[in-house]
Hints:
It is built from six helices and 17 strands. With about 220 residues, it is of the alpha+beta class.
Amino acid sequence: MNEIRINKYLALKKISTRRGADELITAKKVFINGKLALLGSKVEETDKVEVRGAKVNTYKYFAYNKPVGVETDSPQKDLFPLGRLDKASHGLLILTNDGRITDQLLNPKYYHEKEYIVRTKEKLRSNFKQKMEAGVNIEGYVTKDCKVKILGPNTFKIILTEGKKHQIRRMCSALFQEVADLKRERIMNIKLGTLKEGAMREIKGEELATFLNQVLHQS
């Protein structure tokens, strides 16, 4: 999140309306990083904001490398996963306690890139890339355009902007290919990178600001 006015911040956090926030500030009940807030003060997502001594709910965001054989779930009770990966798949999940972004990230009307590395059991056919990118009919639904890069005889990278259930496996099956391994590498600007299997890392700083800006400011 870029810097925003304190009254808008409190409204986004559902603490009060903007006008109500101004009244709280005027009454000297709002503090930013321990200092008394003023009308027009600006805050960032990482700032500590207090109202009447009670800490405002702090949102948390983590990247998690889900192993194969594990159900989509969160290792921490106070966090929930945004989206799913089937039990046989592995890779990046975003964990959070921020309910504001659930619909914006999962609703199919919004455009979000997700990147996967896929290995098939058999050698890829020569027209596989062309057919995948053009859209595949999976049980009456034609998938949206996607980007495919062939990495080897039976390995490819695919970037999707939608997330139908078991979509990549179903697309491959429709083109007579069976998936041997499926790994999610990226969701929007959040990358799995070198994160070890089963491990988590906090999403923060510029990476978090870019992610939230894309999710919360879309139409």
